[in-house]
Amino acid sequence: MVDHFSSSPAIELKGSLFTLMVLRVLSTDLEQITAQLAHKVAQAPQLLGQAPLVLDLLAIADQSLDLVALLHVIRQQRLIPVAVRNASPAQQQMAIDLNLGILPNPSRPERGRVAETTSAPPTIPQEELIAPDLAPASIGATKIITQPVRSGQQIVALQGDLIILASVSPGAEILAHRHIHVYGRLRGRALAGVNGDKEARIFCQHLDAELVAIAGHYQINEELPEPLRGKAVQIALDQQRLVIQPLETALR
Q: Which residues cross the membrane (predicted)?
């Protein structure tokens, strides 16, 4: 008889932190949802194709929902629904029956957010969230990264600012509780104020990001102002809208 537990481990289970798109469902009109979702995906097919998605059902928690049909619409757009949140008990049971996860509801859900960061419990050791060859130069609230952030890597500053002294490649992701500073080319995803800090900002010397976001409000590459591509910019949140300015203008 084979002893499956005396040999070397075959699996490892631990927490981690990921950025997930959140689809806030504001209507049960499937035709309207289909048209608007198709338009969104067409704007950024590389970014959204095969992307995992959390469904936020807060706005329709008291309404009848054909979840099977909704999931079919979402999957037709090559999105992958993985969980629901802010669902009624009946909606939660439907989700369980359809093999979706149930995420805890935020303590203070904010209307108007369209993309958010969903994280595991905050007890995860911070060093597990950083690639070994990208260890920060300091261990204070501000995290400094001196090497390029390559595609597929994720850098997280859980407590303060994140400073990248090199470039951020396409497919890489950087997240910070407060501000983000990139002194090389920003070509991946940058998410500042991931815990909801609306005063957070993003500063970069060369803007060509796949996505920029502050406190859950985001713009994808196709929406970036053409005159500011490749320029040094500052990005801030003003009344639920991202404002991108040339850095020299913002500093006057």
A: none
For residue 102, how many other CB atoms are within 10 A of its CB? 14
Q: Both tokens of residue 127?
A: 């060093």
The gap from C-alpha 9 to its chain's centroid, in whole angstroms, comes to: 31
Q: Are 53 and 82 in contact (CB under 8 A)?
A: yes
- CATH code of domain 143-246: 2.160.20.70
pTM for the model stands at 0.58
Residues 173, 189 contacting (CB under 8 angstroms): yes
Q: Where are the domains of the chain?
A: 21-102, 143-246
Tokens of 50: 């095969």
CA separation for the pair 178, 201 (Å, rounded): 7
The pLDDT tens digits of the residues spanning 32-71 come to: 999 999 988 887 776 677 889 999 999 998 898 899 999 9
